[in-house]
Amino acid sequence: MNNESLSKLLTEVKAGKLDVSEALKQLRELASKELGYATIDNNRELRTGYPEVIFGQGKTPDQVAGIIRYMLTQDNNILATRVTGEMYEKVREFCPDALYNETARTISIRKKQIPPPPTFIAVITAGTSDLPVAEEAAVTAEIFGNRVERIVDVGVAGIHRLYNKIDLIRQARVNIVVAGMEGALPSVVGGMVDKPVIAVPTSVGYGANFGGLSALLGMLTSCASGTSVVNIDNGFGAGFLASMINRL
Amino acid sequence: MNNESLSKLLTEVKAGKLDVSEALKQLRELASKELGYATIDNNRELRTGYPEVIFGQGKTPDQVAGIIRYMLTQDNNILATRVTGEMYEKVREFCPDALYNETARTISIRKKQIPPPPTFIAVITAGTSDLPVAEEAAVTAEIFGNRVERIVDVGVAGIHRLYNKIDLIRQARVNIVVAGMEGALPSVVGGMVDKPVIAVPTSVGYGANFGGLSALLGMLTSCASGTSVVNIDNGFGAGFLASMINRL
Amino acid sequence: MNNESLSKLLTEVKAGKLDVSEALKQLRELASKELGYATIDNNRELRTGYPEVIFGQGKTPDQVAGIIRYMLTQDNNILATRVTGEMYEKVREFCPDALYNETARTISIRKKQIPPPPTFIAVITAGTSDLPVAEEAAVTAEIFGNRVERIVDVGVAGIHRLYNKIDLIRQARVNIVVAGMEGALPSVVGGMVDKPVIAVPTSVGYGANFGGLSALLGMLTSCASGTSVVNIDNGFGAGFLASMINRL
Amino acid sequence: MNNESLSKLLTEVKAGKLDVSEALKQLRELASKELGYATIDNNRELRTGYPEVIFGQGKTPDQVAGIIRYMLTQDNNILATRVTGEMYEKVREFCPDALYNETARTISIRKKQIPPPPTFIAVITAGTSDLPVAEEAAVTAEIFGNRVERIVDVGVAGIHRLYNKIDLIRQARVNIVVAGMEGALPSVVGGMVDKPVIAVPTSVGYGANFGGLSALLGMLTSCASGTSVVNIDNGFGAGFLASMINRL
Amino acid sequence: MNNESLSKLLTEVKAGKLDVSEALKQLRELASKELGYATIDNNRELRTGYPEVIFGQGKTPDQVAGIIRYMLTQDNNILATRVTGEMYEKVREFCPDALYNETARTISIRKKQIPPPPTFIAVITAGTSDLPVAEEAAVTAEIFGNRVERIVDVGVAGIHRLYNKIDLIRQARVNIVVAGMEGALPSVVGGMVDKPVIAVPTSVGYGANFGGLSALLGMLTSCASGTSVVNIDNGFGAGFLASMINRL
Amino acid sequence: MNNESLSKLLTEVKAGKLDVSEALKQLRELASKELGYATIDNNRELRTGYPEVIFGQGKTPDQVAGIIRYMLTQDNNILATRVTGEMYEKVREFCPDALYNETARTISIRKKQIPPPPTFIAVITAGTSDLPVAEEAAVTAEIFGNRVERIVDVGVAGIHRLYNKIDLIRQARVNIVVAGMEGALPSVVGGMVDKPVIAVPTSVGYGANFGGLSALLGMLTSCASGTSVVNIDNGFGAGFLASMINRL
Amino acid sequence: MNNESLSKLLTEVKAGKLDVSEALKQLRELASKELGYATIDNNRELRTGYPEVIFGQGKTPDQVAGIIRYMLTQDNNILATRVTGEMYEKVREFCPDALYNETARTISIRKKQIPPPPTFIAVITAGTSDLPVAEEAAVTAEIFGNRVERIVDVGVAGIHRLYNKIDLIRQARVNIVVAGMEGALPSVVGGMVDKPVIAVPTSVGYGANFGGLSALLGMLTSCASGTSVVNIDNGFGAGFLASMINRL
Amino acid sequence: MNNESLSKLLTEVKAGKLDVSEALKQLRELASKELGYATIDNNRELRTGYPEVIFGQGKTPDQVAGIIRYMLTQDNNILATRVTGEMYEKVREFCPDALYNETARTISIRKKQIPPPPTFIAVITAGTSDLPVAEEAAVTAEIFGNRVERIVDVGVAGIHRLYNKIDLIRQARVNIVVAGMEGALPSVVGGMVDKPVIAVPTSVGYGANFGGLSALLGMLTSCASGTSVVNIDNGFGAGFLASMINRL
């Protein structure tokens, strides 16, 4: 609720056009929709420029389908992450246009075209096993209206593979770097570009990787400036933030 | 065993009404019942105002059913938490009145009505995925004789959803706030009310959530006063404590 | 800002008694005071029933003194925790009534008497070394208008010391139990009373105590119902919450 | 290889009764048997007073059966821990006398009676869910020639259940105390007896129990003297050590 | 070394203008300067748009002074972080224009004016104790040519203090949010704006804060999109990244 | 309070020799002495066979001296651990017989000779740096009436040093093994003897030793049977338990 | 890309034999091959002396087969680790010569014989459960052209089993020591040999082993010099490094 | 004690040249020297090819001096690590030839020249703050008879600084790579050379570096083959192992 809209409402109240109790009710109802198991944040797009995204993990297929069914009544693109095939089956019943990306574990429904800016986002992965997280990032960036370039399997153990792509990487407006194990790739990329690097640690690995902790700590303590980190395996968060920066 | 009952017993012994060895035996037998795999605490209600509650996890269905069968010989309401459907099947065979709440994972048997106080307990959840823990808290508070108001999916990422409920929350005598991930909701609620807040971290989430650790640490270090924390996913503990406070 | 005051302000605006831009300004200015290095929360007492408390750690003596000097212009009792002797010297210069409790590391200034309720709070410590944290809890509870009973050095290694005090403990409306090392005392107290137990882990100890972690985990996983936990060494938080419950 | 046997061998070598190369070979062969996947420690009983025990976890059923088959050629009682039903089936084929304890997850084969000392070992469990670990301890102590008294479900949340058993506990020469969650029971028992207490943390629990860590830290930092700790869930280690102490 | 400059060099070599061995040497020497204890990265500005910054911690005052003395021979603004007063004394001897910010622990030397873009960066702190880290972020952003707005002490325990500043915050192109303890402030800010939020956990606090771990985990698991995290206490990293985004 | 004494008291009450209220008071007063900052456990020797021991850490010199002054009125040997020179100075003023062991950081006052059993305790240290902890164990065992043999600096990196002492080690009735870093020595000793091994991890070391954690985990997971572990640096606990076993 | 080959290329460019744009392309294409989901490092053997090895975990069977199919077009021996039976089935379809080692979880394809040096590598395991990791190490060392001696189940709990093998161990040029639980074996071996010891912690165990952490910390803090550590369960890494040292 | 010397001794015993009890004594006395607080391992050089090295930390200056004084009676080079200036003063009194390296914190006494092999060891540091650990490694390698090349401050944030040194690095027989923070440098070096890389994590850094944990985990999970890791800050261990490999 920003200053402007608050002023407008107060002005209407002052002018007697709006009843006090009615004004109170309007303020409440505009903002969210209760489904019993979920309270949907209707004015998130107004507030943050982006519609609410459904996080599928921990929800039942019926809950995910129910939320999507409600959101279809509105005019936004819809994205659900961490979904299962079973969830998709539920959704496809009433929305045949829904797309399911098995690698990224996403459902996306495109209700309007968002014109992308001329710049693009690079999504760089250290290894083949990091692909699902990278794909979640790419799909997220794309549905929010961005062009994405994917660069795969260029980890530091064979760093010349990265150098072959350096021109493409340097042209990106923002880089997402996805890596597990020691998570060293963002440090190296960050040292070579003059654009923001969003580092995504993955839980891929074994042993002292401890579910992504080694990559997370490595990225947080990176000596390369211009780098920040999102949660382990949080491809969505990286794609969302990259979109926000790319569209500034 | 409080002072009063100890005095009474000593007085009877002094008056010769009670044999010394008999007195010793009475002290022992009154207090608990051995089932081989369990020693039931009979005077817990006397001592703490609440009957013993069965924690199902780690017990076999036969053990859970056996303990409930014994407890039915007494006059208390019965609550079992962390139960499975299989446990419920065993119990239903000899106790058709038993209620099974699948979300909360509880069996409850109501043998007497406990009149609730005029005040109520608010159970607030940050996200849909936190519902099972919140429901365990609510069911617990209800069986111990309390009115409960449920407020769902009002996490801090869309904080106006919380403000829409603020009047209801402020009327509660005690608030239970259930949240996973960063566990920030209790801090915000705690900063807005003048009543105790019981924070329940959940293991819902992924990555650096580390099985509820992020929410737990967030809640423990909360800057809002009037907040205390129970174990991760411990809906029962929160509901029990809230009941204790609401019925003071 | 509750519903009531929002309605009143809207009504005044509607009646033309209050200009829209003035209404906006009022809403802002009432609520807080900026000191450059701090933004004091003026209506916290209105909102939560308790004035803001100063956390001394990490602030300079001048900052602590500056905040207290401002707060003296208002009509509330003042409490500063985690203060040093140096901070106290700065405060005493302009406020000779300030009291410094060296064990509890608190400065308190009593500007009005708060009549205590008939019930009391018990502050129980497991060992002599836990006294500073327990004293912080007791001082906090006292300045917010509560009677406190202190019970010291009754840890579980000699549990009959606790039993000697059991009648006093059972009469308390709420118990604060302060313990380091294995943190077992709250479990035992919680199993004997029918009132809330607030457990405070302390960082007292060595070895696998890991700065209070052993006590914290012990208390969180306590099998005794009716127990909740505050942060390690957080005597203030426990005293505050106990006051809130005692004054319900 | 103690001093005595080394002297004897040297004496035989000196007397020319034993060839140097033969002496070397004897020293090697006496001590162990190679099975390809395992090197069995033949003189462990000689050296430590106890035969080698088979740890089943991480071995295949064929490996467990192969080791037991070899050990049957010797004259010791045989104990295998952490076994599965499948392992037992393999063993029963060639050794019908083998006993399988499903709760304790052990196979035991009694080839000779070991006369127990007059004293006994108490195995005390905090909760029903701790029974498997406690039973592993009890079975271990029994096969090594000890009388065991089992005391179940006497956790600190209802501490009078423990007091009802206090005379039995005080008569034991050594106490094994098995507990999960906050692991407070050994502290309480340790404060009441003048005999060694072996504390066994279990991984039973949830939330901040972190796979037994809370109980482990609680027991390690216990304020009761005379207490030591074995690994999480290590019923075998506790039973073995208790036997060693009981038979001193 | 980008494609362009490599082509140019190859072209010169081809044209015979540049000797092969000379070409090799040029490639090496242009790029860095060895001081014995440090190897200064001369073409970092070329490569990343920003000159190298000196991290004072772990270096001796003489090393810091030596590096700055060398850098003065070049035409960039100079920033040293985590410096001590002693380091500053050494630098002031040969560079009286050096500025020392005691709160931020920085030395800055401005050799050229960088015209700031019309947009600005907001630096928001949860508490007074977080000021040093916030100031490091602000000083960093300023020396790299940005306008900064500072908003202090608006933590979630009195969230209306934040709302009073919401218009200013919403006008910023990028927000840096600095918080210790539960680290909840970035979640709340992130839920209210449509611009990137850079979260900086601080080690301010005590108990289960564990040196900033609680704030770090809270920020990483934040449910608000558009948020990313830098290392604990890494004000420099946040200021640098914010500058990069603000100047895109 | 054992069964016997409870019977006796009940019998006196029955016989009218003892008033009920007097009986209650006696039960209380016999058991402990309150000093304000400490509640001394008077019947610990009765109950556990050992008098209470003073843990100096976290107490002020005056508190330590006050407790010792009170204990001198009773007929037990006195031991204080983790004391400082300053504490000793306070004690020496009123008790010139007090002995201060600077390495072990103990004060001991011998008021009666306890005849040692014929067997002895071996205290084995892995390295020179482990001596303070080992000495605390030895001093503790000695004051409780045991003969101690000290074996120093025989860590596994030069394991023949241990073998030179193997005969002495094998004659001990119980072995205390003190080690930091990888904590491997108890495993090796435990594999060579048929007597209990009490492992004491020390916080000596650096890097991945993490304050004794590496040694603690190593000892807990030791594959040698007959081994149990006490807290990091807990020489007292090991000496106490060893005494208990040696005097069985 | 070493100096030599860079000179050669520059020389050809200078001589006009090689076009500038062609030179650039050659540099890129020689080095790696893109498969979409993987970027194969073609000149790793040139650069590091060893061909790229496929890490199967986290890849789909089709991806593993696809990578192997491409590598068959080149002249190197092929090794894939952490593979499943399903992956092997895919590979066998087009490459019947592929060998599958079920214990080691490897696929190996030998396209050329590498003559082994006269020296050998010893692979020593503490327990039977450590065999899979040890076998991965052995298979790796063998395919890279080394003779391997396997020594199994010689953990420190029965240390004479190790001594029986000491001559063989002392003849090895490098020792790989594989152990779980307390991970003490490398310390003991390291103290007896004058050759490098590569320690491999395994995740075998339970309780305070915490997924291999206890063995890892034990090995890192080992007091025996000449020892270094690879990741938990990283048999491949140990075999590879041992090969590198053995073939120096 | 290898096979050869055991045979010789047995042969002498057989020939009657050596008494049995004398043989036993010889075996014991040859091997170590007891100083009371230390047991010096005399035949470590025989056994491992290297004399014992003194670890100064945790020892008193008198103990360090006493051990060195004894070692001077033997014919080996002497190295003490983690020493203080005070220790050096004690040693210089009786050994003016002792050298003190303040950066490396070592005392070294060279009693004989060890001819270095033609190959050399590269010691590479990521940052200036890692120099003390790197210097400890270099000094260790040098006293054991190796040529060392030092390459400083070539961390991955400016990776071309490393490439300038790549020819030197590729000529080394073994590389020691010392790095704090994210510890990425060994991964990059390991991907470029065909020689062993010994990675040394340092505790240099702040925040999520957690005393070297981030660098340690990063190095352990490194994707570059041929890399192994020593303990945090363990320059000595790296130098020792590098010497062992270089002199193979």
Description:
8 copies of one chain form a homooctamer. Chain A has 248 residues and is an alpha/beta fold. Chain A has 2 domains: 20-109, no CATH class; 120-246, 3-Layer(aba) Sandwich (Rossmann fold), CATH 3.40.50. Helix content of chain A is 40%, strand content 18%. Chain A has 11 helices and 11 strands. Chain A has helices at residues 3-14, 20-31, 44-48, 61-71, 85-94, 131-143, 160-163, 166-171, 185-190, 213-220, 235-246, and strands spanning 32-34, 39-41, 54-55, 78-81, 99-101, 106-109, 120-125, 147-151, 174-179, 197-201, 227-229. In chain A, the strands form 3 sheets. A 5-stranded parallel β-sheet of chain A has the order 8-7-9-10-11. In chain A, α4 (61-71) packs parallel to α5 (85-94). The longest helix of chain A is centred in the middle third of the chain and has 13 residues, at 131-143. The two termini of chain A are 21 Å apart. The relative contact order of chain A is 0.11. At the E-H interface, loops of E face loops of H.
Structure classification of chain A: alpha/beta
Spatial order of the strands in the main sheet of chain A? 8-7-9-10-11
CATH architecture assignment name of the largest domain in chain A: 3-Layer(aba) Sandwich
Question: How far apart are the first and last residues' alpha carbons of chain A, in Å?
Answer: 21 Å
Number of domains of chain A: 2
Query: What proportion strand of chain A?
Result: 15-25%
Rg from Cα of chain A: 21 Å
Largest interface: G-H, 39 and 40 residues
Percentage of residues in helical conformation of chain A: 25-40%
Mean pLDDT metric of chain A: 86
User: Regarding CATH, which class of the largest domain in chain A?
Assistant: Alpha Beta
